[in-house]
Structure formats: C-alpha cells, structure tokens
Write a structure and sequence with these properties.
By secondary structure, the chain is an alpha+beta fold. The protein folds into three domains: 38-217, Aldehyde Oxidoreductase, domain 4 (2-Layer Sandwich), CATH 3.30.365; 223-304 and 360-452, Aldehyde oxidase/xanthine dehydrogenase, molybdopterin binding domain (Aldehyde Oxidoreductase, domain 4, 2-Layer Sandwich), CATH 3.30.365; 526-728, Aldehyde Oxidoreductase, domain 4 (2-Layer Sandwich), CATH 3.30.365. Helix content is 28%, strand content 22%. The chain contains 18 helices and 28 strands. The strands form seven sheets. A seven-stranded mixed sheet has the order 11-12-9-19-16-17-18. A five-stranded mixed sheet has the order 1-5-4-3-2. A five-stranded mixed sheet has the order 14-22-21-20-15, sandwiched between helices. Helix 5 packs across helix 6 (175-182), helix 11 crosses helix 12 and helix 14 runs parallel beside helix 18. The chain is globular.
Length: 734
C-alpha cells in the first residue's frame, strides 16, 4: 500500500481539493461576486488588520481597505455580515473594500467592555445592538470628514463622504489618505444615525452572507478544528444522572494502552450548579480522541445518584397534571372573575397540553481546547459569547482574566444556552490542562452531549375558555407548569408563562398562573425560549376555541386582534397570501399559528398531507413576519427557514425520554431530528410595520410552525394533537 492510499480523505479536504481543482463539484453553487466584502484570511487571529485604527471597530488602510472587527459570533445566522452591513451603511464605504475579523475578547474585558456587548443570543444582534454598531460607523465617518475639513480649511458640513471618498468643492481624497489625522480627532458630540429605511443605500437589500464562501471551500475554522503543538485529547464521562456524585473509579485497565497520558478526576463545587459549572466526572487523556474514548469505556466507575436516580418522565407528567389542578403563582395582575365567568358559562372549552424535555443537539460536537501556561492561557471554545469563555476559564483557574485569550471560531450551531462552549466543557478543558501541563482538547461524545446538555424543561399547560353567544370567548383561565433545575423561575424570557400569558388576543377577562416544579435536570435557553413550547400550546388551543365557537380560525384571530395594527397587518397578509382553507379533502389540511417573540410577530400557515395509514407529509409553510425593519432580507429569510426546521425537528421528531433519572435516547438513532426529505418548502414574507420597531429574526419564525402543523393535522384527520413529538401519535384515518 502506498503512502497516498493510506491518507484519510476527510469531507473538508475533499471539498477543498475539488474547489481548487476547478472540478464539477462547484456546479450549482452560487459563488461570491468579485465586488463582495470578505472575511480576513485568518479570522481567528487576534491581530490581522493592517492600517490605522480609527475606533475599536474600524481599521482603515492607505489603500482604502476597511477592516471591521466583529464582536459577535458567527453560528450560521449571518452575524459577521450583519455587523459589517450596519457599520458600512454609516461609514459609507464600498462593500468590496470591507474585510472582517473577529474582535479581541480579551481587549473587550480589559477595556471595560469596549465592544459594549459580545454575547450573541436572543435574536438581539440587530434588534438591540444596531445603535452602537451604526454609531461606530457614523463616528468614524464624521472624524474622517473633520480631518479633511481641517486640511482643506472648510467647515465639516461642507465635506461629503461617499463610498470611501471625501469631497468638498474642488478638493477630493480617500478615507485612507485622511485616516491618520482622523484617528486623533475628537468630536464635540456623536452624530445621529440613520434609521430611516427609505434613506439607506446599503441596508435593506439582499446581501450574500460573508461566511458562505469559507464554508463552501472548507476554509472555515471551528473550535473542533483546533490543533495546538503538543496537544492531547480528553474524553469525559460525567454522571448519567445529572449532579450524581462520583464514588470511585478504576482505570487500571487503560494505563498501559498506547498513547495514554493520564486520568483526571473532575469535581463539582458544592452549590455551583450553573450552566458552565462542572459536575463530578472522569477524564481519560490520550494522544488521540479515539484512543481516549475507547479507553474511557473500559474505566470502571461507581456513581451515587441519590434520589434523582428514581425519577422519570412518566413521574413528572403525573406530578405536572396534578399541579395543573392546583392554585399556582399568579402572573401579572390576573383577574379572579375569569374562573367565576367560566363556572357560570353554558359553553366551555378546556384542553391540556404537554411537551417533554428537549435538547439542543448542536451540529458541532461539544468541545473546547485550553492551553494553560505560566504567563497566559489560550482558549478555543464555541460559545455565543467569547468574553464568557474568558471569564469561565478565569473562574476555574483562579487567574486574572487579562492573562486569558479567547480565539473566536465559527460555531457549528448555537440554538441557545450560550453555545456548546458555555457548558462545563470549557472548565473541564481548563482544569485538565492545568493538571497535566499540556494543551488539552476535550470532546464530548454525542451521548455525553445529549445526556449533559442544558435542556428545554418538560412543560404542561391547561387552558379553559368560556364562549358567548357570538362564539367568541368571554373569559380565559390558564395554568402552566414546568420542571426546572431546583425550580428556577426562568431562563431569559423562557418561563411557564411566556407564549400563553402574553397572548395579544383581546380576551375580555383573563387569568394565568404557573408552577415552577423542581427537577435535577439542568435547563437553559433554547431557540425562541418559552415561545417555542408554550406557543404550541396556546395557538393549538386558540384553534380549539375558534372551531368550538363556529369561527374560521384565521377570521377569529383577525377579530380578536382588532385595534392592533401590527397584528392586523401580519394576519391580513397571511390571509391574502396563504389561501387558507378549511374545506380540503380528507387527508389534506391547512393550519395556522401566530406567536410574538423577540419583538417580532410571526404567523405561519402549514399545508399537510396525511396518508390513510398516518404518514405525515408537511408540504409547505408560509411564514409572515413583522420585525419592523429588515437589514438583509436574504439572510433574514434563511434564518426563518432555519427556525422552522429547528422547531419542527423537536415538535415532530424529537423529545427526550427519561428513566431512572437519566435520558435513554442520547444519539440520533433515538433522538430524531428532521431529515432532509421531511423538510417542507418554506416561503417567507416580510410585512413590516416600520416605525421604531426593530424585531429579532433569528428565532420568531419557529414557534408558530408546530401549532400550524398540529392545527392542519386536525383538519386532515379530525385528530387533535395536544402533545409532542407528533411521531408518537397515530394519525391514521378512514
């Protein structure tokens, strides 16, 4: 066998080789145009920009190249492109002159959070960060204008800055010519930014994401790709029942295996049960991860699971159903008349909904690499906040954060919970590197990932409404219950209320209560937290009360949101574009759902086909959104498609199952996600109300998709789906 035939051809090397060879592989791909902005050749490096820094976000070279530093992570949502667009819009520079690189998280912390916010979550990058991002571009532009005005002896108001060129009368010059002087300019006050879409020259148009070429040609670097000289690999096993304690272990069977480096016992800190905190675990370290993982399976480990080892999903459902019949914690003002009106009503509709624990199942395996040295610590961790990677390691090692450097990588999916590196894996890598004195890469197996992830809570809700003679509700009484670690109230906006208590329908009287039940299972935010689970329950029930009252579900929603212009815009657009019908032949159905989250109203219309034997096909989802302003419709539509895929994956195919305190379906053969042949066509329409609204777009399209599908299934089969995953239901019909 020759050396050439011994080589392992990875998917990435195949893509790179095929692209370089100019072969037929690239046919069908939309390759970037020559006038597009670019990502720097090594975006993970902390110092690549060439030129003069005009502020923390911008470096301008003499050739008019502008390097924009991106303080947010890129996890496929287009964060690099969004930041660059917002800054370039105000700077007014040719898109082809833009280069991007990730900002230095160490500098951010060292200089009192110089980049304002480095976290990328909650659909808030554009929604909440656009003021200071646009301000960075506007400030640089005005400082360039002032530098030129001073040189030309004119007032700054007489200088125009357009596409990287400064002009005033017969005077002209490029940004690059004046950047050195501009770097010393101090403005009396910061200029106003332009939030009027009618005056945008760059924003609001479809722009290709800058990360796509790197991902197509295989050059994009993820934390999983990290290789450091002298690096060793660790496979880790924590208690399969979260927060179980390690009683003993026997690693004698692995110490003489090739490549053995060491065994490290990892210990939980009493009382520290937060998202990045470590649990008791065993780490086996070898010169390759394969050797580490296979050796780990040979280590004999004894755990103490305590009372948590006796719990199960079935037990939680029983407990949750009992809670739904008990008085809970009041949300908001409430109205005790709701129960009285319902008790006296002649027509009442009630239903109970349930959803199981659900996991993130990120594409990139959970991993982190840490190199602890005497004078500095380097971290490669796929978190949604690289500054958090620094603070996590600083806490674990007891080191000063100024000596810790995070190398920002692309993320292979985030979906909440601060990304895979926001779990205990980053602390694990830091501790193992500290003990062994070597750079260490920790990789969780998929089973370890799903078992130790920070899950969506198991949740239930009971909803009851009374109807008047016109078929419309006279009162609504709802209770929610969810099971969170130690009974915590919320994860961000995720609560046992969100999606139900904040429904925008004009109920005359309403009352909502919640129960926060305790479990040992760690939880955290998931894409569209709260709205994802409770939105399914609320919007499915809305269909139930609309139909019980003799109303078309879409007309009901229009009637019950009268006086709310943005809801009316979204629903009327859905009515005009979706062609919603309730009279399709048996086996076919259309259903709708409307959920507001992250400042955006999203409505979905699903079209499904259910065979007589119960095989479900989701043919299409049309989604209408009002996010106020959309800076990049192309990327926004992609985000909506991804959100729909994400929510349908869990509602249709997912769902964790717990027995004896542990999850038993911890890989993709048993925790199913949507397959490519199951993905429906998704059409996205933006019905923007404008004004001062800046809504999020990374998450809101997801929550209305499951109830839209469930409501469509009812029309197709006559079967009402009140729990997920859908795959567990018999949808057959005659």
């Amino acid at each position: 066998m020759t050396e050439q035939t011994k080589q392992i051809l990875s998917r990435r090397s195949f893509i790179q080789g095929a692209a370089a060879a100019g072969g037929g592989l690239m046919i069908g791909f939309h390759m970037p145009l020559a006038n597009a902005a670019t990502i720097g050749p090594n975006p993970q490096s902390l110092t690549t920009a060439v030129g003069t820094e005009i502020n923390a976000w911008l470096v301008i070279d003499r050739d008019n190249t502008v390097t924009i530093r991106i303080p947010h992570t890129e996890m496929g949502q287009g964060g690099i492109t969004s930041v660059a667009l917002l800054i370039a819009e105000e700077l007014n520079v040719e898109w082809s002159k833009i280069k991007t690189e990730f900002a230095d998280a160490n500098r951010h912390l060292r200089n009192n959070k110089e980049y304002k916010v480095m976290s990328t979550h909650g659909s808030q990058l554009v929604r909440l960060q656009h003021p200071h991002l646009m301000q960075a571009g506007a400030s640089a532009r005005e400082r360039l204008k002032q530098a030129a005005a001073t040189a030309w002896g004119v007032d700054r108001s007489k200088v125009e800055a357009k596409l990287g060129v400064l002009t005033s009368g017969s005077h002209t010059g490029t940004y690059g010519e004046f950047v050195d002087a501009a770097a010393t300019v101090k403005l009396d006050k910061e200029p106003a930014i332009n939030t009027d879409p009618t005056k945008w020259w760059l924003l609001g148009k479809g722009t290709m994401r800058l990360d796509i070429p790197n991902k197509v040609n295989g050059s994009a670097k993820y934390a999983m790709d990290t290789k450091v000289p002298g690096m060793v690999y660790a496979a880790v096993k924590a208690s399969p029942v979260p927060w179980g304690t390690l009683k003993s272990f026997d690693d004698s069977a692995i110490k003489k295996r090739p490549g053995y480096v060491g065994t490290v016992q990892l210990k939980a800190v009493p009382g520290k049960r937060g998202q990045p905190d470590m649990q008791d675990a065993i780490a086996v370290v070898f010169d390759s991860w394969y050797r580490a993982k296979t050796a780990l399976d040979l280590v004999k480990v004894e755990w103490d699971f305590g009372e948590s080892g006796k719990t199960s999903s079935a037990q939680y459902y029983v407990e949750g159903r009992k809670l739904l019949d008990q008085t809970g914690q009041l949300t908001g003002k409430g109205d005790p008349r709701a129960a009285e009106i319902i008790a006296a009503a002649s027509k009442v509709v009630t239903a109970q909904y349930e959803r199981p624990f659900e996991t993130h199942a990120r594409m990139e395996p959970i991993n982190a690499t840490v190199h602890v040295q005497a004078d500095r610590v380097d971290v490669w961790s796929p978190t949604q906040d690289q500054s958090a990677a620094i603070t996590i390691v600083a806490e674990q090692l007891g080191r000063d954060a100024k000596d810790i450097y995070a190398h920002t990588m692309f993320l292979g999916g985030g979906f909440g919970g601060n990304g895979g590196g926001g779990t205990g894996v980053t602390k694990q890598a830091a501790e193992i590197s500290k003990q062994l004195g070597k750079p260490v890469k920790v990789i969780w197996s998929r089973e370890e990932d799903l078992a130790q992830d920070k899950q969506r809570p198991l949740a239930l809700a009971k909803l009851t409404a009374s109807l008047g003679e016109d078929g419309l509700p006279t009162a609504l009484f709802t209770r929610g219950a969810w099971f969170t670690q130690d009974g915590i109230n919320n994860f961000g906006s995720a609560t046992a209320d969100y999606g139900i208590s904040n429904m925008s329908y004009n109920f005359p009287v309403r009352h909502h209560e919640r129960h926060n039940a305790k479990t040992h299972i760690p939880g955290s935010t998931h894409r569209a937290p709260g709205a994802n689970q409770m939105g399914f329950m609320a919007e499915s029930f809305i269909d139930e009360i609309a139909i019980a009252g003799g109303w078309n579900p879409l007309d009901w929603r229009l009637k019950m949101t009268e006086g709310q212009d943005d809801y009316q815009l979204v629903l009327q657009t859905l009515k005009d574009k979706a062609g919603f019908r309730t009279d399709l032949p048996k086996g076919q159905g259309m259903g709708i759902g409307v959920v507001e989250s992250h400042g955006t109203i999203a409505a979905a219309c699903a079209t499904v086909n259910v065979s007589r034997r119960g095989r479900l096909t989701i043919e299409k989802l049309l989604v209408v959104l009002d996010a106020g302003h959309v800076i990049n419709p192309h990327a926004a539509a992609e985000q909506c498609e991804g959100s729909v895929c994400w929510e349908l994956s869990h509602a249709w195919m997912g769902g964790l199952e717990m027995e004896n305190g542990r999850f038993i379906n911890t890989n993709f053969d048993s925790y199913n996600l949507l397959r490519i042949d199951q993905m429906p066509e998704v059409e996205t329409i933006f019905a923007s109300s404008g004004g001062t609204k800046w809504g999020g777009l990374g998450e809101p399209a997801g929550p209305p998709a499951p109830p839209a599908v469930a409501n469509a299934i009812w029309y197709a089969t006559g079967k009402r789906i009140r729990s997920t995953p859908f795959r567990q239901h018999d949808l057959s019909w005659t």
